Amino acid sequence: MTTWYEEAFRPGAEIQGKWNGHSYVVERLLGAGSNGVVILVRRGTARFALKAGHETVDHQSEINSLLAISLTNTSFKNFLIDADDMNVRGKDISFYVMRYIDGMTISHFIHKRGQDWIYVIGSNLLRKLTEIHKSGYVFGDLKIENMIVSNYGDVDLIDFGGVTPKGRAIKQLTEVYDRGFWNMGERVAEESYDLFSFAILLLKSLDQRHRFTAINKMLPQNRDMNQLTAIMRESPAAAQIAPFLQKALKGEFGTSQEAYHYWRKLISGKKLAQPTLKMPWLKICFAASIFIFGATVYMYWLN
Fold first, then answer.
1. 4-99 and 106-267: identical CATH topology
2. What number of other Cβ atoms are within 10 A of residue 290's Cβ?
3. Rounded distance, CA 119 to CA 32, Å?
4. Is 51 annotated as a binding residue?
5. Annotated domain spans of the chain
6. Contact 131/139 with Cβ under 8 angstroms?
7. Which backbone phi and psi does 138 adopt, to 5 degrees?
8. Domain at 4-99: CATH code
9. Are 179 and 196 in contact (CB under 8 A)?
10. Using one digit for the tens of pLDDT, what is the confidence trace for 243-284?
11. What class, spelled out in words, does domain 106-267 have in CATH?
């Protein structure tokens, strides 16, 4: 059975905005979830991520939050490119267009580059969360799938469906990242809510024994701090940041700004990951220089 978005967003299809008049050409589907679908599109030579929502009210709320963040003088400035409606089977579907970030999940990045990169990635992600919090919002649905890591640990958030004004009930969540799931706090949009999810995200990224797979099947009364502490002990990288993780999980940080400063102090002096450049040509040049030097000496003595 073909879904509505497979038909509307097939590669090569053109999306025409009803009100702003901008048109986009579909390249491929990036992801589909309960609150919408995300498509890679292009306009001219520029590429963007387009998200279309199933529920108009919820999607408009997401656009409003993203617009407010996009107007701040932060790394999110001008993140929102366009917001409009498109017609699908005679029905108006709301969509918005945002910057497209080419990268990989944190799990893939760490598997490829090494666990020491968690220090750099953690710093960058905390800085992003602090920017959102200072704008009056909480990200809400922070998880591995909702962030992208690129270059040398640069971080971007890519799904804003859970963004919620501070003080309100969290409108979208993923259970294992939710402090309510762990019986460790309420589902209220507070900075501490995002920091709890941040700690779970890091632990899940460093969980080489895949303990989180079994946690979903546990009885609610068995989900507690002991389970998370055990995972911390199993990973050298997690053990290094355990003091931060414990404070974040227990809600002991007043703000994300405070958490960021604590994190920076904790990792200072740690051996941070550095990009490694493989340059086999140096060895070749070195070997060649030795050969030329030897040949020169040999010819000198012959003469």
1. no
2. 10
3. 30
4. yes
5. 4-99, 106-267
6. no
7. -120, 140
8. 3.30.200.20
9. yes
10. 999 999 999 999 999 999 999 999 997 755 554 433 344 444
11. mainly alpha
